[in-house]
Structure formats: C-alpha cells, structure tokens
Amino acid sequence: MTTVTLIPGDGIGPEITEAVKAIFAAAQVPITWEEENAGQTTFDSIGELIPASLLASLERNRIALKGPITTPVGKGFKSINVQLRQKYDLYSNVRPAKTTAGVKTRFDKVDLVLFRENTEGLYAGLEIFDERLGIADSISRVTVEGCHKIVRAAFQYAAKHGRSKVTVAHKANILKNAGRLMLEAAADVSKEFPSVPWEDKIIDNMCMQLVSKPEQFDVVVTTNLFGDILSDLCAGLVGGLGVVSGANIGDDMAIFEAVHGSAPDIAGQGLANPTALLRSALMMLEHMSLHEYANRIEAALEKTLLDKNCCTRDLGGTASTSEFAQHIISNL
Ligand code: NAI
C-alpha cells in the first residue's frame, strides 16, 4: 500500500473526491488516502490557508490528489495552487486533451498533451501597484533553466509515448527575450531527441489553428500564462472542464488535480461531474506504475460515458455525482 495525500478542496471538491474514493475502493487500488485540506475551509477552522500538517503530509508522501480550491478574484490571498507549485518546484503542468466516445464535441480526433511551464512567467508573483500614478506592473520572469526543464519534459514525453511532434507556442515576435528563451531551449533540447520533430507557432496563430484544426497537434509546450489559457481552450475541444485531467509534476513530487475550479454555482447539489478528478487520479496511477488498475477504471469510465442516462447533467444525463460513480463501479 502506498500512502497518497488527498486534498478535497472547496465547493464541489468534497463531492468529487468522495466519488473517486468510492471507485478506487471498489477497484481495490492499493493506496491509502491521507486526508488534509487547504484554503478558505482550513482558514475558517484553524486560521491557516496552507496548514503545516498538509505540507508535512506532502513532504512525507511526495504524491497527492487535489480537488479545486477557491481563490478570491482581484483581492485576498495568493492562489494556494500557485503557492504549492512554486514551493515544491512542480514546474511541469501536464494536461491531456483527448476526445472520448459518448462525449459530444465539435471534433472527433483530438489527442494532444499540453505541457505548461508552471512556476514562472506572469505567475512569478512579481506585481507592483503604484496607487498614486494608477500603474500596475506585472512582471513576467522566464529563466533559461525553467524553459529547458519544461521543454525537456515535453520532449521526454513525446519520445516515451511515440508522439509525432512537439509544438512550441510562444510570442517571440513581441516578447523578444522571454519568447526567445523558449525557442532556444527547444533548439537545444531537441538535439537530445533526434527522433522527435518539432515546430514553433506564434500563440495567436496557435489559438486559431487549435479551434479550426486541432487534430494537427500532438505534444504542445508553452510558458505559464499561454499554457493556462490554451489548456482550458483544449478542454473545450474535448467536452469541457468536467472531463479533462491535469498534473503538476516536479523532479521529486507530483500533485494531480482536476483542472476545473470549485464551481460554487453547483456545489453541494450532487450535480458535479467527477470525471476530471477521476482521470487525474488515473494519471496518478500511471505515474505510480499501477497501470492495470488505471486501465480497468478507464475502461469502466469509458463504458459509462457511452450511456447518457448514467452521466451527470453537464454531459446531457440526469445522474447525480454519486450515481455516476456507482455506474462506473458496476462497469468495473
Ligand atoms: P469553475 O471551473 O469552477 O466553473 C466554471 C463552470 O464550469 C461553472 O459553470 C461550473 O459549474 C462548471 N464546472 C466546473 N467543474 C465542473 C464539474 N466537475 N462538473 C460540472 N460542471 C463543472 O471556474 P470559475 O467559476 O471560474 O472558478 C471558481 C473558483 O475556482 C474560483 O475561486 C477560482 O479561482 C477557482 N479555481 C480553482 C482551480 C484549482 O483549484 N485548480 C482552477 C480554476 C479555478
């Protein structure tokens, strides 16, 4: 048995983590959950946004599954997600986007994996506001090392999984330095992977190409803000935020998480789709080399998604979060 830290999170977080726990228990996955929370919930109960016990659990287990955490908009505390990514140098945000039979989309052959740099760029936390002049400076910090690390992660993934090419998305025509560092990193790192072709695309063109012909992309790598936006765009191509998975991976720790937020509009009503968190948990099992368990649950999930009646409302069904989980369990 391996112990995994489980962070239920806010809003729909507890409902979808319960669903994943039930499915994992039914599939007899050999892991033990160590539950710790963060954010507004723990702030209200013990006065800490990121409790020391959560950090201790992460440092002990080095692997976690995380539900969404609410972040105040335009005020309040800094995103817990961003803080954890930076504290543990989880530099690689991996977001697969693949069409699934049964999930209605405009495209039917999308199968790409986005690698978003997760700790630098405009999320480095370098913000200055001059109240007197009414000027806000948000500084994007991009480093040679950071670009090499994320680009290498993308090429390694492409080589390991026999992917056809890597696309580097950037804005080097305007951001002459920050953009150039990504391109130079790709040129350098690609020499280590001669069997993996690569290309570059300017980010605005990349968006247009993605929404008109997404099948042409395979592995995509980009800086933090572009990656944040592109990853939700890619989620939209394959059925929305309720069905796509995500992972934050560093050299010695990984936190797997649903890419959607805490969905306060539907929280506590049994309407949330647990697929995104479940798929993130399956990525975690792959990361832990528990492939057989991951494949078995994935097959049950795919079978369930084929029957609209078994699905949650966002997928056109009427099942509640826990009923959907029960259908997956009966398909195991
Ligand atoms: P959101 O992803 O929570 O919701 C956007 C829309 O998608 C809503 O209509 C919601 O009902 C729907 N939705 C999301 N997940 C769903 C699911 N599993 N099943 C069915 N429908 C689902 O984004 P929003 O409203 O922009 O953010 C709400 C809060 O979440 C904010 O505080 C934000 O900062 C936080 N957030 C946290 C993230 C994380 O912890 N990784 C990521 C994104 C946002």
Outline the secondary-structure elements:
Layout: E1 2-7, H1 13-26, E2 31-35, H2 40-46, H3 52-61, E3 63-66, H4 80-87, E4 92-98, E5 111-117, E6 121-130, E7 135-141, H5 144-160, E8 166-170, H6 176-190, E9 198-202, H7 203-212, E10 219-222, H8 224-237, E11 247-249, E12 254-257, H9 275-287, H10 291-305, H11 321-330
Parallel strand pairs: 1-2, 1-3, 3-12, 5-10, 8-9, 8-10
Antiparallel strand pairs: 4-5, 4-11, 6-7, 11-12
The chain binds 1,4-dihydronicotinamide adenine dinucleotide.
Overall number of structural domains: 2
User: What is the second-level CATH architecture of the largest domain?
Assistant: 3-Layer(aba) Sandwich
Classification by helices and strands: alpha/beta
Helical element count? 11
Q: What is the CATH third-level topology name of the largest domain? A: Isopropylmalate Dehydrogenase
Taking all residues together, what is the mean pLDDT? 95
CATH class of the largest domain: Alpha Beta
Q: Which oligomeric form is depicted?
A: single chain
Low-confidence stretches: none
Annotation, overall tally of beta strands:
12
Could you give a short account of the major beta sheet?
Answer: 10 strands, mixed
Estimated helix fraction? 40-55%
What shape does the CA trace take?
A: globular
